[in-house]
Amino acid sequence: MITVETPASFEWNESNSQWVKNYLIPKTPLLLSLTQGLGIDINNMSETQFTQLCQLLETTAEGRELRNKMFKAWRSKKSRDSDDGKKLYTFNLSIKAGDQLKKVAKNKALNKTLESLIFAAKEPACDTKKMQQTIDSLSVKNQELKQQLSNAQNQSSNSNDTDTDDFDSLIKNDLQVAELAKLEKSQLIKQILLLKRKLNK
């Protein structure tokens, strides 16, 4: 009896058996000639019958070719299924660029290296956008704090009964001072310190 080796990852389950049947049905005339009309019912084929069919195909060159093509197609299908969210791209690179890509990749796969390079090129644009959003947000806060400082200055000049506790808590807010320092630098800090000294007198 001829022993037929199937791909290591091939199992006769519902999904794979259906794929085999769909693959073989268009090839029914060839199968009939290769099996000498043994009456194999592809639609109702069991795992045992499939094994027998593969063994029979091994006895002729045309049969072996059909079997090899079938399992090659199955491997391709399995590879496509496992590459979810991926697509095959074929393009030419100069030899110099290819050599440079291999150097950059070192021991990593070339496709993974290309992906990391592509995504790395996008990151600075994202960082710039986030930075601009932060600057815009800090600018708004800066204007609000300027207004609060102005109101506090007006209140302190009109009345000695200013609630210094509330004002001190505003000045002592480390996060706001840090944000103001980024935008207004030393000038605004000087104004805060001078105002604080006046309030402490």
Verbal overview:
It is a single chain. This protein is mostly helical and 201 residues long. It folds into two domains: 14-82, no CATH class; 123-200, no CATH class. It is built from eight helices and no strands. Helix 5 (95-105) crosses helix 6 (110-158) and helix 6 (110-158) packs parallel to helix 8. The longest helix has 49 residues, at 110-158. The relative contact order is 0.06.
Average the pLDDT over all residues and give the rounded result: 75
Percent helix: over 70%
**Low-confidence spans:** none
Order of helices and strands: HHHHHHHH
How many structural domains in the coordinates? 2
- Give a count of the beta strands, DSSP E runs of length 2 or more: 0
Ends distance: 107 Å
Q: How many helices in DSSP terms?
A: 8
C-alpha Rg (nearest Å):
38 Å
What fraction strand?
Answer: under 5%
Structural class of the secondary structure composition?
A: mainly alpha
Question: Quaternary arrangement of the chains shown?
Answer: single chain
Name the shape in a single word: rod-shaped
Main sheet: strands, sense, barrel: none
Keywords:
201 residues, mainly alpha, 2 domains
What's this entry about, in short?
This protein is mainly alpha-helical. It has helices at 14-24, 28-34, 47-57, 61-82, 95-105, 110-158, 164-171, 174-200. Helix content is 73%, strand content 0%.
Give the SSE layout.
Elements: H1 14-24, H2 28-34, H3 47-57, H4 61-82, H5 95-105, H6 110-158, H7 164-171, H8 174-200
